[in-house]
Amino acid sequence: MNKPAPPTSVSFTLNGAGAMAHPQVGERLSQTLREGMAQRDVKIGCNAGDCGACTVLVDGAPVCACLMATQQASGRTVETLAGLVTQDPIAQRLSDSFQAHAAAQCGICTPGMMVTSVGLLREHPQPSKLQIEEALGGVLCRCTGYRKIIDAVHAAGLGQTTETPTTSAVGDPIPKLDGLVKTTGRDIFSDDIAPPDALVLRVVRSPYPRASFQLGDIVGFVAKTRGLEAVISASDIPGLNAFGVIPGFIDQPVFAEEEARFRGEAVAGVIGTAEAMRAFDMGTFPIDWQELPGAQSVADALHEDAALLHDTRKGNIMCGGFVQCGEADAALERADVTATGQFTTGFVEHAYIEPEAAYAVPENGGITIHTGTQAPIMNRDSMALILGWDEARIRIAPTAVGGGFGSKLDISVQPLVALAAIKVGKPVRLTYSRSESMQSTTKRHPADITLTVGATRDGRLSGFQFLGHFNTGAYASWGPTVANRVPVHASGPYQISDYRAESVAVHTNNPPAGAFRGFGVPQSAIAQEVLFDELADALNMDALEFRILNALEAGTPTVCGQVFDQGVGIKACLEALRTSWTSERAAAEAFNNARSTEGSALRRGVGVAGGWYGCGNTSLPNPSTIKAGLRPDGQVVLHQGAMDIGQGANTVISQIFAQALGISVHDLVLLGPDTAITPDGGKTSASRQTFVSGNAAKLSGQSMRAQILQMVNASEDAILAFSDGQISVSDAGQTHRIDLGKLSTTADGYVLTSCETYDPPTKPLDANGQGIPYAQFGYAAHLVVVEVDTVLGTVNVQNFVAAHDVGQAINPLLVEAQVQGGIAQGLGMALMEEYIPGRTENLHDYLIPTTGDIPPIETIIIQDPDAHGPHGAKGLGEHVLIPTSPAILNAIHHACGARIRQVPATPSVVMAALKGAP
Amino acid sequence: MGYHVPNSLSDALDIARLTGAKVIAGGTDVFPALGDTPAPAQMLDITRLPELRGISHSGATWRIGAATSWTDIQKADLPPAFDALKLAAREVGAWQIQNAGTVAGNICNASPAADGVPPLLALEAEVELCSSKGSRTLPLAQMITGVRQTALRPGELVSAILIPDMPDGAQGHFQKLGTRKYLVISIAMVSAVIWTDEAARIAGARVAVGSCSAVAQRLEGLEADLMGQNASDLRDNSAIWTTHLSALSPLSDIRGTDHYRMDAAAELCRRTVLTCLQACDE
Q1: Best interface-test mutation with B: which of A46, A56, A58, A67 has the largest number of B CBs within 10 A?
Q2: pLDDT at B129 over 50
Q3: CB environment A712-726: b (16+ within 10 A), e (fewer)
Q4: CB–CB contact A840 B37 (8 Å)
Q5: Strands across the sheet with A10-14, in order?
Q6: Which member of A63, A69, A831 has the closest CB to residue B96?
Q7: Torsion of the alpha carbons at A50, A369, A99 and A120, rounded to the nearest 10
Q8: Strand-by-strand arrangement of the A719-723 sheet
Q9: A918 falls in which pLDDT band (50, 70, 90)?
Q10: What pTM does this model have?
């Protein structure tokens, strides 16, 4: 044999400079770059080539660094985003263009998108949009819906620069304040903070949906396995081995005890050196499993012989929700036409591109947990219970969040990594693999909904009877919220005086179903909006006009008896679609006639659907507090505790605060979120940050302004300017100067502080769900054109027109970004996404849309200022996907006559429905 | 123990024989299969073997080096019969995967949904296998023996794919059916190579279907039945597409039911063959 000895070192050019690595056999280039060369701008989303986040250029060609052995880089040129943006004008142009187009939301896919785009623009300096779609087809994004990325690359290719506003007032479409760190790869995400030599935790998980287990000789195992420090399990938990998000439903163990209730549930953790854990074989862990019969479907769980997942929850029913007004039965009797359907949806995975990760550091007699989260204060409070510690000893220091969409409201990695760090008394890191993330974190609830709706000959709704079973998985998570929200929202934004809606949350041996953009409402909207089309058909009415006729208005009660005297924008949203509705229906008819003549199987259809969503907690206190301080040097510091998970809270909250204070956002310094320094901005959920934290920011800005004006007796119209150590207040032709150096400072170093809280006004719901659940609702209506291949059942979505009532757009650019991203998730839910434990635990079997699946989206922003919103603004995050799925199903029916009662409507499902269609 | 990067085929074959090292080329199947488990102690990197790179033509045979990437295939100057292979090359994963993944790797991974296999079957590809004892060739259909199973013997490497010249005017086409546009594992796919006589009647047909059986299959009954037909005959003959599918045994899984796959395979055959015929006509 001709001796090529295994290379002990590998040399290559990294971002223009010589680099040398000493990789293990078969070490992935992504690992070497991130851990050995501090190149944390290379992101790892799947370790399987399914997401493209780790894309680097090797000799100019984009490749997944996770699929390349480091030895293969020998002698070659490797370029990553951080290097490209400092060296390559194309990358710099892309960085500017990505920011100007809001093409980076959370930013975790941005390195993959940007690096691939550099590769494309070097080869094709002015690519077409189709070329861009194809080139970026291997990089997944879960936030943006891709269109803004495609636009950004297209504009960068053409050398177009997008004007950005010179002012940053409310209503100005300014780029995200944290955009630059995202487009240059400098943002720090949850797996980017731990040093490479930190101890590593890996989690032992149940391989079965239900199983009992016994741990073996742990002491012997640790002693004989090289590099291991310790094992942790339930017995290491000093406080309560339980967490949850709803009082009364704190039921999920950090580590299962004796029995695991779902596949992927944590039972123990193994802590060792980074090197040892890379080589660690999970199969050597001493544990005996006995699989037990489990219930994976709602029907199985409700069976009288089914084992109880939780002893106190009889029949495996966790809870329910109920709303009733009028007499649904009688109204359905009276109705001239009725429509009935049973609808089913599956588990939907959040599929953020950043798997959960954390780094815990024991310090100052407590623990600091660095992680991506949507709810730092809730994380801290859960950790206090688990550790049995005072909250003051626990610091949650959030990193940037690589996508959340509801799942990162719950804790996942936090207690595991904290318990490990406490056990060994040293810092520990934990990074979920893609499959761990998918197996163990929350999902959207599968729903089984039976709905009957009626209407009278004049087109008015008459009776609505809804029963929905929601598969809530093994533990509560946000299941109670879903159960509550669904009956309140199942009517859609329509006038229904005779209504009965009941939801039932059922435990099964599945991952916990929790919060996912819309909290159950996207599921109920499918049933309601599809049957509304059927009613309109039966009445021989136009589907859009039927909705407009029945739309809620100011002064008409919701099904909860809530009457708004303003801020009901659904009619405006639906009416905004009229022009497109007419032209798109005509175009589809012409298209279909032509295809029919030439014998083609393609048919186009146009669908519409409406939606609404109440912003904030349902009838519960829901405060946010925003603090700001003025330093003696004149710098205004905003303690921004409202988690930005890509949606733009850092920018929007700043715009609102800055406007109230009377300065530019660019003159602010942002701190936090960090439980050590920011007051509670509440959780980033329920479309509440712009509305609730926005109001707190406005109050805080107003308070600081009032304090300043009072110091010089200036009027409300005064203009403020902050400069070195002073404020100048210009008012009525006079300028007052306040010398900040003469003012006393607080303990945190401020000469002025403002800290204000806002809590939306709501009232409890009674036994029939009557009351004031929300201070405001946002409204939406989507129109979609689809093309169905009537022989293969494939659905190709052509374009969307999306009208959204946001009260007042604080930042129209970010409104569009939210709408497009939400639509992409709604499209995925409608056409391709279903999580099946044990089967679709990766991103090549679980499909989310790619660049080629999302068509152009026209966003129509309806602005009717809301009485409660800051400057009239409403929340938006969840509204954006509620009408999407039913609009697509309605368009499929219009195209080809197939009535679809389940999602995802894969080609196989569409063909089955088409064969059953008359 | 180690990561071996030989720079000649004979060295590579020695290493393969002596170590049984895991062979790696593009890595696009090796690393996903590893998941969270440690890499093997011995790996044999075949990407720096000049004998395994490039596409050449000599005599009546095309030779595609085993480590030729899918991007290389897209960029190569090849006759129209190879259009199917070029279209498939654009469907293997996405750009990142095509830049790294190799033709032989796609074969050796032996996935029922390997995008490269139906076009290579329709091109009557043979696989050249080398070991330190010598070399042999196998028809592709005999190389892949089952799901994730091949006829590769210990110590053997694939060195090239050999494709015979097709008759002048032969046209290839490929259609892949998936639930999304890019980066998708197919529900079904069909590849065809067709050539016609002077009267525009089919004089030769090769049709292969993937993702509808453990190993992609040629439909020889359909190929025989297509002989002598022209486009208008075929438009009037819907039965021809559904009567020769007995070689297929599709599964019902998350991507589609068995019945759906069977129907889709028939329709994809129809579309693919008619597209080839249209190209022959032009």
Answers
A1: A67
A2: yes
A3: bebeeebebebeebb
A4: no
A5: A17-21, A10-14, A77-79, A55-58, A61-64
A6: A63
A7: -30
A8: A719-723, A726-731, A734-739
A9: low
A10: 0.98
